[in-house]
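Form 7-S
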Amino acid sequence: MSEYRKTDDTLISVIVPVYKVEQYLEKCVNSISVQTYSNLEIILVDDGSPDKCGDICDSLAKKDNRIKVIHKPNGGLSSARNAGIDIASGQYIGFVDSDDSIEPYMYENLLGLIKHDGTKLAVCAVNYIYEDGKKANKAALGKNCTFDFYHAIVEMNTHRFFDMGAWSKLYHKSLFDDLRFPVGKLSEDYYIMFKIFDRAQAISYLDTPCYNYLQRNNSITRSTKINHDHEYAAREQMIYLDKKYPELKIVSHTSYASAALTVYDFYIKNQVTCPKEQLQHFRDVVKQNEGYIKQADYLSKSKKIQFSLFMISPCLYRTVFKIYRKIKRI
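Output:
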């Protein structure tokens, strides 16, 4: 795919939301600046960061004329990404979170795959980087390939080779026509990724891990207030797919049940007691969708055991989850 390194004049806009990441920002931006594909527009969105991030952005822009800086009042991750999309000049758009970094060949390879496959969206495998220096690769398929819409939705919702994270992908800008990340929501990627996949219809998959996703020990402050946006986003996906693609009901309903269980996991991770009525809601969601879960032959055996264990005994489920989390470092 190296023919796209110097001869292709396609501009890629890389959007980097910036907020309270002083110690990571320069490494992140440098990893973008040294890309083997150099025809980039690098948009740093200072989202009202109270530290020195704004000054660092301005300093980096002086060193690389491809860098543009937006300084705006704090509005959250979605607001920052949307601000970048609004001014992006590139035919393609990528997102990099400001505490992460990317391999030097990421955009050359993703664009090359898009050109080769004739798609509008490509996604790459991911490295999970821990602050103690250890690295773990996201499960790899073993080859590059193209997923049709049906199988892309399955993969996105099972997280086997990729998920709904905005950052490991390269998008044709038209995929964001009249579509933006929802401001004020967490799980913001989940709310729109199924719509983007629908617009793209085919998704190129790059088996080479190119995105380095930092697992920060302090990235999420433990809170007694658990956010349920992940479940709400899954419900929106379910309603959307049920109406437009009824053949995907097994996927959409199973994913909704899985999302409800994931929110319950948040309670466990944050050591917050889940209210009885909320726990009953989660169990009702799983119960109502048991028929779809049983038909989901793409689900791993461990995932089906997870559902069963939760329905048998939430108390036992909590114990097993804590042990599993400690072993897997999730």
